[in-house]
Structure formats: structure tokens, C-alpha cells
């Protein structure tokens, strides 16, 4: 144990590895600059007069084989556009996974709907389809399915349940660009697919997002208007048909998006290749990489594995601290050491003034006390899952260094 960097031993990884936080781990270059230059020279930075957002949407829709793509300002904005489209009544329920980003929940609360947290599968950490139906009530309107870590959720079972109960399905693909489920792209299986292009994602525009769909009109409103102030732009003059925010993507983001999208297949394949290599190198260690469902293709937003606390002399948190000291960019538990309902915005209903809305709506049905163990499987996963930040610029040599550092830490702490 003395040789661990955390105990002042020599650090295993001596030079820093590529990181998504800067140019070392991102594929941004002349292609993006060329696109950006065109936008600046055009003088049109807004989608209203520019051509780049429209081009980016067309390219994204073509890649995904869908009729419509709407470019927006973030992944949260994409999900809010989706929930605005659904137009729930205040107090309607939307089922979500507790292992996800707050960006999946904010839009539900903002539309005064109630998030209902359905526990996850103990292995994949995606929604547990065997338990899903037990969360449905007469007030359930939709399911937001996060494909966590880039691993496809159990979509056949989820869609069968959704159809049986006439529920709308929104796929949260913020971590799952080009993930495949039984030959179909995640984001095209439910009714809507939502993506994020935030700095850490498989492709980035800094911040940014996309909604994809095969229909532009449902629930009495048009999808595009749900991120555009409820404004029917095809009519002359001004009109605002319903309450909706302005979530336009700028032409600058779209320019970067066009160039990034052209690299997406290669960037995703690079993430997969190196992640599989790490799995291979870790086979002799008592760690369990998060499994991926058969007939699916995960795309490794993070590289995740579980450490069985019973096998080690220290807690998973101590393992992570030692890994960080060795030079690995990692942390314990996503979205932290508690599921998403463990944060004040939900747990303490820090929402609108002191009202506690939507949880305090007169006819809202409350799932329970969010500070209690609502989803025990998710709670355990948050306390045991090691998440390593991943990116397309990691190569075999980097992965070997990561594997050696993990091995050093695990061996030091094994009983
Ligand atoms: C699963 C998931 N959903 C939604 C979001 C929200 O995306 P953004 O940060 O672009 O708003 C994220 C971003 O981290 C995410 O990982």
C-alpha cells in the first residue's frame, strides 16, 4: 500500500492523459474553423437568417434516418422541448430513471409535471423493465428513457409497456450518440430522441442539443414551435400559440456541429475500441465493467465498473481517491453518490419560490419521501460505480497506463 501515489508513492501515470476538457481529448480543428469562418463572414449568427442550423438539422436527421431534427441550445433544452411538446397537465406523472443527469428532470418540473423515479437494473443501471409497469398510474403520461453511460436500455420491453398504457416515450440519448439497440439507433425507437452536445459528449458544440422525431405534430402543437416561443414562423406576422421558451441553437454552434457530426462515427468507434481494450486488460482483476445488453452497441460516454466492497480493505471511495492520485480522471457514482432525487431541487422541492410546486399541487400523487431509499438498486450503484471520463483521443498506450494504475490500486487494497 506504501507505493500508492495517495500515500506519497510514485504516480503511476506520469504525463497527463488526453481529456475532454481541452484540445488534447477533443477532435476540433480546421474543419470546425472553416465552418465558423463561413458563419462570421455571412454576418448571420441566428438560425432565422443563417443556413448552418438548417444544414446541421438536415445532416443529423439524415444520419439518424428520421424526418425531423430540431437544433437547440443544450441537452436540457432538447428534453424541455420534448416535454413542452407532450404538454402534460400540471400534476401528470412522467417516469424517469434515478441514474441520470438533472437535465432529464428539470424539464419535467418546469412543466409542473411530477417525476416518478423507477428503479434500475442492478447490472446495466438502465430502467429495470421488469419493474417498470408497477410505477404506472392513471396519471402517467410518458417515460423518459436514459441510455446511461451510452448503453442502450431494454427498449423492446419498454416500448411494449408504453404501448399497452398509451404512454409517450422520450429517449434521453445525451450520453448515447450512435448507440444501437437490435440494429436500430437509440433515439429512433421511442417517439422522440434527445441529444446533448455539451463539452464532454461524443461530439460537442460547447453546449447544444438536438431533438429528433418522425412527426412534427402531436398533442395539438408543433415540435419546432416548442423551442421557439410557440411561434408559427411559416405564417406571416407574429403569433404565440402556447407557452414555450426560446432554445434556438446559434449558427456558431451549428457550424461546429456540422463539422463534428462528420467525425462522429470515427469518434464513437475510437471510444468503443479503447474501452473494449481496457475491459480486456482488466479481466484478471476483481472489477466488473458495466455489462451491455445482448444485440446492442454501447458507446462509452464514461468507462464504468463496479468494485465489490467485500473484496477490498477500503471503501469504493478510497479506491477512487487512490485512482485519481495515480493520474486517472475518474469519480465515484453517477450522478454522484446519491441518485438524482437526492439533490435539493427534488428532495427539498427547491423549485418555484417557496411553493414547492409541482409537488404541492393539490391533486399531485407523491411517490414518497425523496430523502428515503426510493430506488435501492440505484442507490447501491451510486455508491459502488467507478466512472472514468472517456474520450476519442485515448489510445492503446493510454489505456495500458490506466489499466496498470487500476491494477496497482486494486492489488494494494485486496484482502
Ligand atoms: C443523461 C443526460 N441527460 C441530459 C443531460 C443534459 O444535457 P446538457 O448538459 O447539454 O443540458 C445530460 C448532460 O450531461 C445527460 O448526461
From TrEMBL:
Q: Which residues carry this modification: N6-(pyridoxal phosphate)lysine?
A: 201
Keyword set, alphabetical order: Pyridoxal phosphate
Q: Which domain of life is it from?
A: Bacteria
- GO molecular-function annotation terms? pyridoxal phosphate binding; transaminase activity
Short name of one Pfam family: DegT_DnrJ_EryC1
Example GO BP: polysaccharide biosynthetic process
Kindly identify the residues recorded as the active site.
Answer: 201 (proton acceptor)
Q: Which InterPro entries match?
A: DegT/StrS_aminotransferase (IPR000653), PyrdxlP-dep_Trfase (IPR015424), PyrdxlP-dep_Trfase_major (IPR015421), PyrdxlP-dep_Trfase_small (IPR015422)
The entry assigns this protein to a family as follows: Belongs to the DegT/DnrJ/EryC1 family.
This protein's name: Pleiotropic regulatory protein
